[in-house]
Amino acid sequence: MGDVEKTEFNLPPDTTRGMGRPDGSSVDPSVQPTDRDIETNLRPKSLDEFIGQPKVRNQLDLVLTSARNRGTAPDHVLLSGPPGLGKTTMAMIIAQEMGTSLRMTSGPALERAGDLAAMLSNLMEGDVLFIDEIHRMARPAEEMLYMAMEDFRIDVIVGKGPGATSIPLEIAPFTLVGATTRSGMLTGPLRDRFGFTAQMEYYSAEDLTRVVTRAARIMDVPIDAEAAAEIASRSRGTPRIANRLLRRVRDFAEVTSNGHIDLGATKEALVVFDVDELGLDRLDRAVLSALIKGHGGGPVGVGTLALAVGEEPSTVEEVCEPYLVRAGMVARTGRGRVATVTAWRHLGLQPPDTAPGLF
């Protein structure tokens, strides 16, 4: 068996213990948590704490409550949506709500069927197996997963050639939680085996303001309501980005003032970190500038844009373009990318009569 990337979480009900010793006491009172520790503490531990995604929360609450009442493992769950919306957090919450352990891996780590067999054979009854980017799992591992999801057993092939034999191996009933940013790349047989499918949506500014306020409270950082709303408005509808911007604004406030985050400090900090009022960063603006100033607003192919900004085409297409399209700044056409009126005006330029969205 090859090495498998996996982590087991036994989630405690209280994560507010100190750092340092195994019992939670602090070795040094001056020790400060790292950003990774803060990010872990910012994750909600229950559906009640989870902000946003009301439809998904309500549906999932019904699924989990019903499973608890029956004393069985919940149906397999598929979570789809853009990065940073809480799919991993939701998997942790499922394990927490069911009182079981969470085992984590990713699709690219499961290169062989043996890798998956090693994980499945070690599961205890009721465990939650979380596979991130499940659409990137190797085909042999995916085909083994079909039988495991339906019948809770796998066939292990021993030997090679004519002498190879298949040994059936029973596995404990478990719940698979799959996360994908590209649900269209999932095969039909795999998608059909999930009993519950949830589509995670981008967050509203109001929900993100609540996310920022909650995170600031956990981090023990004083913040004004206007500052929290400003950070939320520049976070692209994504809690992960909101938490990251909050940490950078906190750094700025601690260095330049008394640590209190007000609206003025927030705006100054986001200027320093190249995040404008619409949430665009340096690379986003570079793409718009190349599209408008370098090619008259398009149409331009994504490869040409990538060459102009010194990035890979996949970076422009997967990192920048989704938000620029959603923000109404770039239109995708059969001949290439075209800048809209909003993009021209955002760069302080007069749009031509042919720009999309002028009339």
Structure description:
Residues 73-206 form the AAA+ ATPase domain. InterPro entries: AAA+_ATPase, AAA_lid_4, DNA_helicase_Holl-junc_RuvB, P-loop_NTPase, RuvB-like_N, RuvB_wg_C, WH-like_DNA-bd_sf, WH_DNA-bd_sf. Pfam families: AAA_lid_4 (PF17864), RuvB_N (PF05496), WHD_RuvB (PF05491). Residues 23-203 are annotated as: Large ATPase domain (RuvB-L). There is one protein chain. With 359 residues, this protein is α/β, with parallel strands linked by helices. The chain folds into three domains: 7-199, P-loop containing nucleotide triphosphate hydrolases (Rossmann fold); 205-272, Helicase, Ruva Protein, domain 3; 282-346, Orthogonal Bundle (Arc Repressor Mutant, subunit A), CATH 1.10.10.10. Helices cover 43% and strands 13% of the residues. It has helices at 35-42, 54-70, 87-98, 113-121, 139-151, 188-192, 205-218, 225-233, 239-256, 263-272, 282-292, 302-309, 313-326, 341-346, and strands spanning 7-9, 77-80, 102-106, 128-132, 153-158, 165-170, 175-180, 196-199, 330-333, 336-339. The protein has a six-stranded mixed sheet, with helices on one face. Strands 5-6 form a two-stranded antiparallel ribbon. A hairpin with a 2-residue loop joins β9 (330-333) and β10. α7 crosses α8 (225-233) and α12 crosses α13 (313-326).
List the helices and strands and how they pair.
Elements: E1 7-9, H1 35-42, H2 54-70, E2 77-80, H3 87-98, E3 102-106, H4 113-121, E4 128-132, H5 139-151, E5 153-158, E6 165-170, E7 175-180, H6 188-192, E8 196-199, H7 205-218, H8 225-233, H9 239-256, H10 263-272, H11 282-292, H12 302-309, H13 313-326, E9 330-333, E10 336-339, H14 341-346
